[in-house]
């Protein structure tokens, strides 16, 4: 595989790991200096809202605490379409992915589009492996209900 295919594979693998609730697998795709942020712009208050902001260690604590949360256990399926992936002059990769998240309800099995937005990823080499250094998800969706603790 060429470098661009490897970068895209890391992004797609991260979505699959989260779909499978393979949180250790997801964190294994992340750089030790990983930073994650998810938010949306609110036209009502004319400000950016930040819903979750974590680093590698705090993301691990979040995943470890999930069984203790009163959560919606509906399954989530993430579909990404990578718009662009470009190597920067410093060797990092920048990628923009359109993200759709589908939710399948446990009671009845109905599936619905749950969230849409764009993922902005920075990937960096760590011990000869490309890993996600920074992921910022800018959502269009702003209403989720309660009990959704798993990151997109």
Structural features:
single chain; 152 residues; alpha+beta; Nuclear Transport Factor 2, Chain: A; 3 helices; globular
What does this structure look like?
This protein has a single domain (3-139), classed as Nuclear Transport Factor 2, Chain: A. 22% of the residues lie in helices and 49% in strands. It has helices at 3-19, 23-28, 56-65, and strands spanning 30-42, 47-55, 75-87, 93-104, 111-126, 129-139. It has a six-stranded mixed sheet. The longest helix is centred in the N-terminal third of the chain and has 17 residues, at 3-19. It is globular and about 45 Å long.
Mean pLDDT: 91
What is the string of helix and strand elements?
Answer: HHEEHEEEE
**Which stretches are low in confidence, meaning pLDDT under 50 for 5 or more residues running?**
none
The rounded distance between the terminal residues' Cα atoms is 26 Å
In DSSP terms (H or I, runs of 4 or more residues), the helix count works out at 3
| Widest β-sheet, arrangement of strands | 2-1-6-5-4-3
Mind telling me which CATH architecture this is?
Roll
